[in-house]
Amino acid sequence: MSSLNKGIDKAEVTLKWDPSPYGEPANDLDIIAATYTTDALYGEPAYLVHFDSRSPDGTITLKRDSKTGQGLGDDEAMTLEFSRLAERYGRVVVGVTIQQRHGRRTFGDIPRTLVRILEGYDELSRDDFARIPDATAAVVAEFVRDGDGEWQFVSGIRGFDGDADDFASWMGRRPAAG
What we know:
Layout: E1 10-16, E2 29-37, E3 47-49, E4 60-64, E5 76-81, E6 89-98, E7 114-119, E8 122-127, E9 137-145, E10 151-154, E11 158-160, H1 164-171
Antiparallel strand pairs: 1-5, 1-7, 2-3, 2-6, 4-5, 6-9, 7-8, 9-10, 9-11
């Protein structure tokens, strides 16, 4: 018997922030997606999608990548096509990280940040990172496949303070209960 609940077929994660003040190094934030197989939902991802890559099957794509936060509208946008994602995948975690090449930067240092999770015109989540000002990266969304094979959105922001290379591994941890 099939479920009467509709899962998420396609989602978009958008990110925006204001540029650095004139004369200051540019703030560069990046959206990252980590994909996990159904037999290894936690730990190391099967693959990552970020500014220099895309998913092997083209189901997760970074459509916009800003290095400065300049311009109108969203600075970064990632599309996740769950209806096309192979059945062997059971979890996708999406995060945002701040590039640290010009010295330590946290979300508290970046003016007017906004991350949104959308399903079509419906806004599933919106956050400005104000509750994690000392974090250098954050998990912003999780999508999990339920028992009926439908994709569900799990809300919640989890801040991370550390090296960007360690963030990719940290994303795969099981979220703390609470």
